């Protein structure tokens, strides 16, 4: 069995928790559990943190390099909310930076549209009604509305929101979220390519 050491460089705790919980589910989803184990390097994720999404976008190459050089990372997951930007533009800019630096095969980028709460809301409604076949596209609704739907408050503290993120993302239907969110599907496609190229 191959061990892949990874770190997470993401703009906030919700993004970090979500990804830490999602990676093992994706390994299982693609039937690689007997071949690959992903080991989270907590020290990197705790040591190298951006101040916000813009800081994450500006510093992610340097942060990943610290992870590769000083923490023994094989891969770095970089998470930023898209906010009011166009997903394709943000992803393309970040991917181009990876290509310029020659690390496109060592950095996997995930960019929720508009924020991680949109992915969490899709997960939440499916957990509340497993027979749900479709859900309205909510990615054009305001971020405050999504926070209220997910956390039951507009500005939750990490003490309130982190357990909710953890609970929702610990186990969820990967195909459902892929169907609901093109941005999640784009990330899963990257992840699948990464593990197939190992």
Notes on the structure:
Helix 1 runs parallel beside helix 7, helix 5 crosses helix 6 and helix 8 crosses helix 9. The model has no long low-confidence stretch (mean pLDDT 95). Strand 3, helix 4 and strand 4 form a beta-alpha-beta unit. With 198 residues, this protein is an alpha/beta fold. It has a four-stranded parallel β-sheet, sandwiched between helices. The chain has nine helices and four strands. The chain has one domain.
Largest sheet: 4 strands, parallel
Secondary-structure class:
alpha/beta
Helix content: 55-70%
Counted by DSSP, the helix tally is 9
Unreliable stretches covering 5 or more consecutive residues: none
Keywords:
four-stranded parallel sheet, alpha/beta, single chain, 198 residues, 12% strand, globular, 57% helix, 9 helices
Question: Which helices and strands, and how do they pair?
Answer:
Blueprint: E1 2-10, H1 13-29, E2 36-40, H2 42-47, H3 53-70, E3 75-79, H4 87-101, E4 107-110, H5 116-128, H6 143-151, H7 158-169, H8 174-180, H9 182-197
Parallel strand pairs: 1-2, 1-3, 3-4
Helix pairs in contact: 1-7, 5-6, 8-9
Brief rundown of the structure:
This protein has helices at 13-29, 42-47, 53-70, 87-101, 116-128, 143-151, 158-169, 174-180, 182-197, and strands at residues 2-10, 36-40, 75-79, 107-110. It is α/β, with parallel strands linked by helices.
């Amino acid at each position: 069995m191959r061990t892949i050491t990874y770190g997470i460089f993401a703009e906030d705790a919700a993004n970090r928790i979500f990804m830490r919980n999602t990676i093992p589910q994706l390994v299982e989803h693609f039937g690689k559990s007997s071949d690959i184990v992903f080991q989270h390097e907590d020290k990197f994720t705790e040591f190298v943190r951006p101040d916000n999404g813009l800081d994450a976008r500006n510093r992610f190459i340097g942060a990943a390099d610290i992870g590769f050089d000083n923490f023994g990372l094989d891969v770095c997951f970089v998470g930023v909310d898209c906010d009011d930007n166009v997903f394709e533009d943000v992803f393309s800019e970040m991917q181009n930076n990876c290509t310029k630096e020659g690390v496109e095969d060592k950095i996997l980028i995930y960019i929720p549209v508009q924020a991680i709460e949109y992915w969490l809301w899709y997960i939440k409604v499916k957990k509340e009604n497993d027979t749900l076949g479709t859900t309205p596209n909510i990615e054009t609704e305001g971020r405050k509305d999504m926070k209220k739907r997910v956390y039951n408050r507009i500005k939750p503290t990490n003490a309130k929101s982190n357990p909710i993120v953890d609970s929702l993302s610990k186990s969820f239907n990967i195909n459902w979220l892929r169907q609901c969110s093109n941005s999640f599907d784009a990330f899963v496609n990257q992840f699948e390519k990464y593990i197939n190229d190992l």
